[in-house]
Write a structure and sequence with these properties.
The protein has 578 residues and is an alpha/beta fold. It is built from 21 helices and 15 strands. It binds one RNA strand of 77 nucleotides through helix 1, helix 3, strand 9, strand 10 and helix 18.
Length: 578
RNA sequence: GCGCCAGUAGCUCAGCCGGAUAGAGCAACGGACUUCUAAUCCGUAGGUCGUAGGUUCAAGUCCUACCUGGCGCGCCA
């Protein structure tokens, strides 16, 4: 079985070598990397590197400012093969490199052999101009090269309201789709509606029985396996009000459609409230009705990928790495979900997508191997499909975990959570953690309008900047054109750090998209806010010094733009005042 | 029993292709509002990165085994 991590590794290997797309990266990092590469080639030509191959030059932004603007580990990687100790080799690289074509202020050799580059500061603030020019496009790239990727998410059965766990998958899927689009993929968002099969019959039967109960004036629980929820009673009432008491058992098929449509409307409304829309709602039923399921099963049989045993039809998933073969058609003649899913994924492939992302609850992980098998049986490499398994959500109230069972009493629906905590906090909290670790959702904290709530910390950054601009307008200070600004006046350590953080956005987006890790947006924007707030507190923007005021306003405009861009990707509002 | 995910400060978690002294928030303690918004800021304290080996110049990160927790192993969906 090919796990999602393997698939991700394969994808990343491709992208690492793709050219960095962002202008800032070209200007700064890549220029520096090229210079280093040149220096290494010169050293190799001079015979100083022995027979060592020159590896890809890696540049990292160090955690500590004393370690420079960029740090490079190349001397340590080459030392052994070059037959020199790392610090000596680093010294030779520095001598050969010089000022890297006017880019480098100075270079230090540190620790075991790191090269720490301090760049000339005017280059650092070029990003402010770039952001002003690109506006809301800043951070986007063409790393995805227009590849078509489908993100299928939520896909909850239309048998009841969405619960909190669905909400997490919904937000993660939505933001991942935003990220992929920003990274240059052509993204399609899809919701797969399981509107066929046994559960649908149960739904129609549940509605019918509730309807009968209304007529007979009873309200006892329905038989085992049917849907007990109050919403069914509401639909039954509606049905009776519109159609009277004459509906018979032969109309259950019709009631199924009626109820499923109602529930889907409810699901759609709940998602809409969270700011989530789909390009397509894909009906499972159309696959059955259109004969596609039948057709794909015949195809598998024809290629001996499926066989009859004990009156059932089995899929040879074991030969693609699954633990055992799986049933496609039960001996009673009913098709399993897998049968429909094979046809569905064949349909996705036929629609021409290059990559498929499925977002499921973690309790479905036993299903991954057989879907990977299906992809292979359909003639595609298993890496084409990435399955993201979203871990469980625990609601926390008053410091205690609230049971997530559907028992009455404890709140479980997504709608209630959004009503209580609001769209922004709900989205932020769902994005806060890696999708593959469990999430404790502190409801009290999410709805608290206080400094403890991280979503406000980030939004407040935006509001504060807007407030400064309002003040500037009030005092008749015009917003500067960044090309006329003297950025050499920005010498505070926070200003340098902010410029570097702003310049990182394209990388953050590209890597978060590549690795399918939307939570990195949260980490990024929170980090930016925790550089910004102390900076704001310490340095006044509007002062008598017109040149400095202009430089800081230009920087503020860039921070605001980046904040807007990131919050937009997260689907969270950027308020002008709070 | 087999498989997947997780295990990092008292609690909840970051840590991007393996890099320098492992970072935040909360909770605790002590400070800062006459200012462009205090929904903010400054400071103190807090660590055997589950355990044991291994690979490497370098391991929270990679490999192996084990321990603990969650989930999954059906002709269910």
């Amino acid at each position: 079985m090919t796990c999602p991590r393997v698939a991700r590794a394969l994808v990343s290997r491709v992208l690492v070598y793709s050219s960095l797309s962002d202008e800032i990266e070209r200007q700064m990092k890549e220029k520096l990397a090229k210079s280093i590469e040149k220096a290494l080639e010169a050293l190799k030509a001079a015979g100083e590197l022995g027979d060592a191959d020159i590896p890809e030059v890696q540049l990292a932004i160090p955690k500590q400012a004393e370690h420079g603007d960029y740090a490079c580990n190349i001397a340590m990687m080459l030392a052994k093969k070059a037959g020199k100790n790392p610090r000596e080799l680093a010294g030779r690289i520095v001598e050969t490199l010089g000022d890297g074509g006017g880019l480098i202020e100075r270079t230090e050799i540190a620790g075991p052999g790191f090269l720490n580059f301090f760049l000339k500061s005017e280059g650092l603030f070029d990003v402010v101009k770039t952001i002003a020019t690109q506006g809301e496009a800043f951070g986007r790239s063409d790393a995805g090269a227009g590849k078509r990727v489908m993100v299928e998410f939520v896909s909850a059965n239309p048998t009841g309201p969405l619960h909190v766990g669905h909400g997490r998958g919904a937000v993660i899927g939505d933001v991942l789709a935003n990220l992929l689009a920003a990274a240059g993929y052509a993204v399609h968002r899809e919701y797969y509606i399981n509107d066929a099969g046994v559960q649908m019959n149960n739904l129609g039967r549940s509605t019918y029985l509730r309807y009968r109960q209304l007529i007979e004036g009873t309200s006892e629980p329905l038989p085992e396996g049917l849907y007990q929820g109050d919403y069914i009673v509401e639909y039954a009432k509606e049905l009776r009000a519109g159609r009277g008491d004459g509906i018979g058992e032969d109309a259950i098929g019709e009631l199924t459609v009626f109820t499923a449509t109602k529930i889907l409307d409810m699901i759609r409304a709940d998602l809409d409230r969270l700011g989530i829309r789909f390009d397509e709602w894909f009906s499972e039923k159309t696959l059955h009705d259109g004969g596609q399921v039948r057709e794909k099963l015949d195809g598998l049989r024809a290629r001996d990928l499926a066989y009859e045993k004990d009156g059932a039809l089995w899929f040879r998933t074991e030969q693609f790495g699954d633990d055992k073969d799986r049933v496609l058609v039960k001996s009673g003649g009913e098709k399993t979900y897998l049968a429909a899913d094979v046809a569905y994924h064949a349909n996705k492939i036929d629609r021409g997508f290059d990559e498929l992302v499925d977002i499921w609850g973690a309790d479905h992980h036993g299903y991954v191997a057989r879907m990977k098998a299906a992809i292979q049986a359909l003639g595609k490499p298993p890496e084409m499909l990435t399955v993201m398994l979203i871990q469980m959500v625990n609601l926390v109230r008053g410091g205690e975990r609230v049971s997530m069972s559907t028992r009455a009493g404890s709140f479980v629906t997504l709608r209630e959570l959004v009503d209580e905590a609001g769209k922004d906090a709900t989205r932020y909290f769902f994005l806060m953690r890696r999708y593959d670790s469990q999430l404790d959702f502190d409801v009290d904290l999410a709805k608290e309008k206080s400094n403890q709530n991280p979503v406000f910390y980030v939004q407040y950054m935006h509001a504060r900047i807007c407030s400064v601009f309002a003040k500037a307008a009030e005092e008749g200070v015009s917003i500067p054109d960044p090309t006329d600004v003297d950025f050499s006046l920005l010498t505070a350590p926070e200003e340098v750090q902010i410029a570097q953080q702003l310049a990182e956005l394209p990388n953050v987006i590209e890597r978060a998209a590549r690795d399918r890790e939307p939570h990195r947006l949260v980490t990024y924007i929170y980090d930016l806010a925790s550089t910004f707030h102390p900076y704001y507190f310490q340095h006044r923007v509007i002062t008598d010094d017109a040149a400095l005021t202009a430089a800081r306003l230009a920087l503020y405009a860039a921070i605001r733009q980046v904040t807007q861009n990131v919050l937009a990707l997260m689907g969270i509002d950027a308020p002008e005042s709070m």
